[in-house]
C-alpha cells in the first residue's frame, strides 16, 4: 500500500486550472469554457512552474493554447520593464504558420493588454517591440545580428535582451535538418544575450524557458533534450481520430480498422496510371463530392495535396473547369512560387467559402488554419508517416473522423500508401537520425561575427561557442579549428592577430541584407517575376517561358501570355482548349530510406527481406534502402546497375551471397568508399547550403555521419534474399 507521501498529487479540476491562469485563462479559454483537452490539462502546471517542455499530441488537440496560455500567465507574474519589451518569442518553420499563429494569438493577447507582432520578410513589427513576437529561424538570426543598441562602439542593449521564454511550433520540422541545428545555435546565443542583459542591469535573471509542440514526433524525449535544452522533458498524450478512406470501386467510405496490414490497405487504394492524368483525377475527386450529396453527407470542402507545383497549376485549372459546371464551387491553388499575397488570398477565400476545393503542395502541410475541411485528397504518397499525419490531420476536426482519398499513380505509390496508412492508423512514426551538420557552424560563425559591434570575434570565442552548443566529444577532433583555418584560407574570414572578421564576399552579402546570410535552407532559384497585366501585381516567380506561347494554366486560373521580357506578363483568359504550365526548376527528390521501407512493407515483405521480383522480364533485387544506400551498393558491386523508375528501391540482379557477406565484413572499406563519394552523396543527404564552405576532410566526416556507415553495414548484413515466383 502506498504511503501518503508516495501517492500522486490529485489532478486539479479544469476550472481550477483555468482559474490559476487568472485573466489569461479567461482570455484563452473563454469565460464559459466547457472543458480542457487532455494535453492542456497536463501541460499547464509544469509550464507555469517554469519547466521547458515539449508537448506532443494529436492535431486539433489545443497544443497552441496548452503552451502559450501558461507561458504568458507565468510571464505576467514576473517583474517587467516600464517600457515595451519583447518577452515571448514564438518561432515557426514557415511564414504561413507565422501568420496563422498571429491570427490565433493576437485577440486573446489584446484582451490582456499585450501587443502581438510578426517579424518575417513579409511583416516587420519588431520595431514596436510587442510583448509577443512571432518569427522564423532566419528572422531570429537576423534580429540577433542587426538589432543591438550601441553606445560609443559598445553594445548596451538588444531588442531580444528581455526575452524570457521561447515557444517553438511544429518542432518535428526542425528534427534532423540544418534549420533545426541552426535553431540550437540561436538559442545558445540568445542565452548568452540573456546573461549579458543581467550584467547590464537590464534584467535580474538570465533564465530562459523553451517549450515546443508538435503532433508528429517519433522520439519526443530525444528531441526535447536536443532542441529545447538538456533539462527539457517531453509530455506526450496519445490519441487519434477515426480514419476512413474512400474506395471508388464500391463508392463508399470505409474505416481503417485496428490491425489492418499494409498489404490489405494497399489493395484498397485508388490507382491512376500516368503521372499527370488530370481528367481521371478530376473524375475521382468529383466522385467524392457527388456521392456526398447523393447520400445526404454533404462534402463541401476538400483539400487536395499534390507533389509538384506544376501539377498544382494543371489540376486546379482542370478542377475549376469541370466542377463549376456541376456545382457552385470555388477552386483555388496554393504553392511556394506564388507570392505571399496570392497565397494568403487563397487561404482566406477557402476559409470563408461554403463550397471549395484547395489544391496545394506541401505549403499547407503544417498548422495553417484554413477552416473546416471535410476530406483530404492525397495525389501521391508523402515521404513519411509524420508528413501523412500532418496532411490528413487537416480534415474532420469538427466531426472527429478523418476522411482521406489516397490516389496512387503506380504500383510503387500504392504499396507506399498501404504502409503509411497502416502506420498512421497505429500511431507508428518513422525514426529520426541525429547528426551534427557542421555546415551550420560556418553560417553561425559569419552571423556571430556580424553581431559584434566591431564585426569581429576572437578565435577562442568562436570555438567556445561550438563547445557550448555541442559540449561532448564532437569538438574534440578539432573540427571548429579546422573549419576556421579553412575559411581563412578561402578569404571568407580575415585573421588579424587573434581576431577574425568577415572577408569581402561575406561582408558584402551581410551588408546587402541578403536573406541567405541568415539561413540554412536549400532553396530553388527565385526565377523571373510573373505579373498580372491587368493589375500590375507580381503573383509569382518562375524559371522561364522559353518555347511557350499562347495559353498557360497557373495558380488555379487560365492565362494568356502577353509579354516575355524582364517580366512575364499574363492576362486572364477563358477556359477551354489545351494549355501549358510553367517550369519551376525543381530537381527530383531522392528516395529516402523511410519511404523505401514503406514500399517494402506495402509489397507484403518483412523489414529484413530483400526480394527478387521480375519486372518487364528482368529480375530485380529490391533492396529498398533509399537513394544514398543504392549509390554505395552500385560502387560495392560495380557489375550491377541502376534501373530507371526504381531509384532507391531496386537494382539489377543481387550480388552472390558470398560477395554480400564479404562486403558486410569490410566496414572500413565502406567508410573509405563513402568518404570518396562525399560530394555526390551530399546531394542526397541534405547537409545544408553552407556545406561547400567546409574543408574537404570535414565534408567527408559530415557525409559519413549523415550516411551512417555502421548502420548501413548492419542493414546490408540483415538482408534476407527472397525469391518470388
Describe the overall structure.
The protein has 725 residues and is α/β, with parallel strands linked by helices. The protein has 4 domains: 12-237, Rossmann fold, CATH 3.40.50; 242-426, P-loop containing nucleotide triphosphate hydrolases (Rossmann fold), CATH 3.40.50; 439-518, Orthogonal Bundle (Arc Repressor Mutant, subunit A), CATH 1.10.10; 593-723, no CATH class. The chain has 25 helices and 29 strands. Strands 10, 11, 12, 13, 14, 15, 16 and 17 form an 8-stranded mixed sheet that branches. The chain starts with 13 loop residues before the first helix and ends with a strand. The model is unreliable at 1-8 (pLDDT under 50).
Q: Describe the largest sheet.
A: 8 strands, mixed
Number of helices, where a helix is a run of at least 4 consecutive DSSP H or I residues: 25
Indicate the CATH architecture of the largest domain.
Answer: 3-Layer(aba) Sandwich
Q: What is the CATH class designation of the largest domain? A: Alpha Beta
CATH topology of the largest domain: Rossmann fold
Low-confidence sequence ranges: 1-8
Tally of structural domains: 4
Report the structural category: alpha/beta
Q: Span from first to last CA?
A: 61 Å
* Number of beta strands: 29
Helix content: 25-40%
Q: Give the overall pLDDT as a whole number.
A: 88
| Fraction in beta strands | 15-25%
Query: What is the radius of gyration computed over CA atoms, rounded to a whole number of angstroms?
Result: 27 Å
CATH superfamily of the largest domain: P-loop containing nucleotide triphosphate hydrolases
Shape: globular
Pfam family, one: Helicase_C
GO molecular function: ATP binding; ATP hydrolysis activity; DNA binding; helicase activity
Protein name: DEAD/DEAH box helicase domain protein
Organism: Thiocapsa marina 5811
Amino acid at each position: 500500500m502506498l504511503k501518503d507521501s508516495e501517492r500522486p498529487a490529485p489532478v486539479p479540476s479544469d476550472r481550477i486550472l483555468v482559474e490559476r491562469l487568472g485573466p489569461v485563462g479567461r482570455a484563452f479559454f473563454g469565460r464559459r469554457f466547457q472543458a480542457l483537452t487532455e494535453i492542456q490539462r497536463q501541460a499547464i502546471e509544469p509550464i507555469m512552474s517554469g519547466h521547458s517542455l515539449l508537448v506532443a499530441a494529436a492535431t486539433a488537440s489545443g497544443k497552441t493554447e496548452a503552451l502559450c496560455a501558461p507561458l504568458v500567465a507565468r510571464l505576467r507574474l514576473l517583474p517587467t520593464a516600464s517600457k515595451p519589451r519583447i518577452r515571448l518569442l514564438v518561432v515557426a518553420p514557415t511564414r504561413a504558420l507565422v501568420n496563422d499563429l498571429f491570427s490565433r494569438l493576437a485577440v486573446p493577447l489584446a484582451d490582456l493588454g499585450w501587443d502581438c507582432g510578426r517579424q518575417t520578410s513579409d511583416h516587420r513589427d519588431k520595431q514596436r517591440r510587442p510583448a509577443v513576437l512571432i518569427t522564423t529561424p532566419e528572422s531570429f538570426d537576423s534580429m540577433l545580428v542587426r538589432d543591438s543598441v550601441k553606445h560609443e562602439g559598445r553594445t548596451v542593449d538588444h531588442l531580444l535582451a528581455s526575452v524570457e521564454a521561447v515557444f517553438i511550433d511544429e518542432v518535428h520540422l526542425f528534427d534532423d535538418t540544418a534549420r533545426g541545428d541552426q535553431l540550437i545555435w540561436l538559442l545558445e546565443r540568445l542565452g548568452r544575450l540573456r546573461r549579458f542583459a543581467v550584467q547590464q542591469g537590464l534584467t535580474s535573471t538570465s533564465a530562459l524557458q523553451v517549450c515546443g509542440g508538435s503532433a508528429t514526433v517519433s522520439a519526443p524525449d530525444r528531441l526535447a533534450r536536443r532542441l529545447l535544452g538538456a533539462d527539457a522533458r517531453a509530455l506526450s498524450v496519445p490519441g487519434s481520430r477515426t480514419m476512413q478512406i474512400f474506395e471508388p470501386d464500391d463508392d463508399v467510405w470505409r474505416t481503417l480498422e485496428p490491425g489492418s496490414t499494409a498489404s490489405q490497405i494497399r489493395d484498397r487504394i485508388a490507382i491512376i496510371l500516368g503521372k499527370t492524368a488530370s481528367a481521371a483525377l478530376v473524375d475521382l475527386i468529383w466522385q467524392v463530392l457527388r456521392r456526398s450529396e447523393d447520400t445526404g453527407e454533404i462534402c463541401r470542402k476538400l483539400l487536395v495535396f499534390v507533389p509538384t507545383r506544376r501539377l498544382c497549376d494543371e489540376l486546379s485549372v482542370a478542377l475549376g473547369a469541370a466542377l463549376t459546371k456541376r456545382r457552385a464551387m470555388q477552386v483555388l491553388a496554393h504553392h511556394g512560387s506564388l507570392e505571399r499575397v496570392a497565397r494568403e488570398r487563397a487561404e482566406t477565400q477557402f476559409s470563408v467559402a461554403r463550397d471549395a476545393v484547395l489544391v496545394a503542395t506541401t505549403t499547407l502541410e503544417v498548422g495553417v488554419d484554413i477552416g473546416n475541411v471535410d476530406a483530404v485528397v492525397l495525389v501521391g504518397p508523402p515521404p513519411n508517416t509524420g508528413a501523412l499525419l500532418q496532411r490528413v490531420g487537416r480534415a474532420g476536426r469538427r466531426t472527429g473522423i478523418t476522411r482521406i482519398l489516397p490516389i496512387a499513380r503506380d504500383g510503387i505509390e500504392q504499396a507506399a500508401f498501404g504502409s503509411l496508412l497502416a502506420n498512421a492508423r497505429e500511431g507508428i512514426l518513422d525514426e529520426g537520425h541525429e547528426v551534427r551538420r557542421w555546415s551550420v557552424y560556418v553560417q553561425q560563425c559569419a552571423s556571430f561575427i556580424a553581431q559584434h559591434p566591431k564585426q569581429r570575434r576572437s578565435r577562442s570565442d568562436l570555438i567556445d561557442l561550438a563547445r557550448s552548443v555541442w559540449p561532448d566529444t564532437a569538438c574534440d577532433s578539432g573540427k571548429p579549428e579546422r573549419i576556421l583555418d579553412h575559411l581563412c584560407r578561402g578569404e571568407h574570414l580575415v585573421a588579424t592577430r587573434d581576431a577574425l572578421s568577415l572577408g569581402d564576399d561575406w561582408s558584402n552579402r551581410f551588408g546587402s541584407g541578403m536573406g541567405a546570410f541568415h539561413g540554412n535552407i536549400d532553396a530553388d532559384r527565385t526565377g523571373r517575376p510573373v505579373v498580372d497585366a491587368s493589375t500590375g501585381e507580381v503573383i509569382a516567380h518562375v524559371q522561364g517561358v522559353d518555347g511557350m506561347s499562347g495559353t498557360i494554366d497557373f495558380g488555379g486560373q487560365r492565362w494568356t501570355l502577353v509579354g516575355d521580357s524582364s517580366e512575364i506578363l499574363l492576362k486572364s483568359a477563358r477556359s477551354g482548349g489545351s494549355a501549358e504550365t510553367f517550369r519551376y526548376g525543381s530537381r527530383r527528390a531522392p528516395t529516402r530510406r523511410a519511404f523505401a521501407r514503406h514500399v517494402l512493407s506495402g509489397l507484403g515483405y518483412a523489414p529484413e527481406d530483400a526480394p527478387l521480383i521480375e519486372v518487364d522480364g528482368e529480375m530485380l533485387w529490391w533492396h529498398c534502402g533509399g537513394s544514398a544506400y543504392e549509390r554505395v551498393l552500385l560502387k560495392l558491386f560495380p557489375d550491377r546497375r541502376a534501373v530507371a523508375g526504381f531509384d532507391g528501391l531496386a537494382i539489377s540482379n543481387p550480388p552472390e551471397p558470398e560477395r554480400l557477406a564479404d562486403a558486410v565484413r569490410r566496414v572500413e572499406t565502406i567508410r573509405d568508399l563513402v568518404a570518396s563519394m562525399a560530394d555526390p552523396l551530399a546531394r542526397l543527404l541534405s547537409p545544408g547550403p553552407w556545406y561547400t564552405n567546409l574543408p574537404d576532410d570535414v565534408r567527408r566526416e559530415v557525409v559519413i555521419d549523415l550516411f551512417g556507415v555502421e548502420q548501413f553495414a548492419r542493414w546490408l548484413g540483415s538482408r534476407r534474399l527472397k525469391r518470388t515466383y
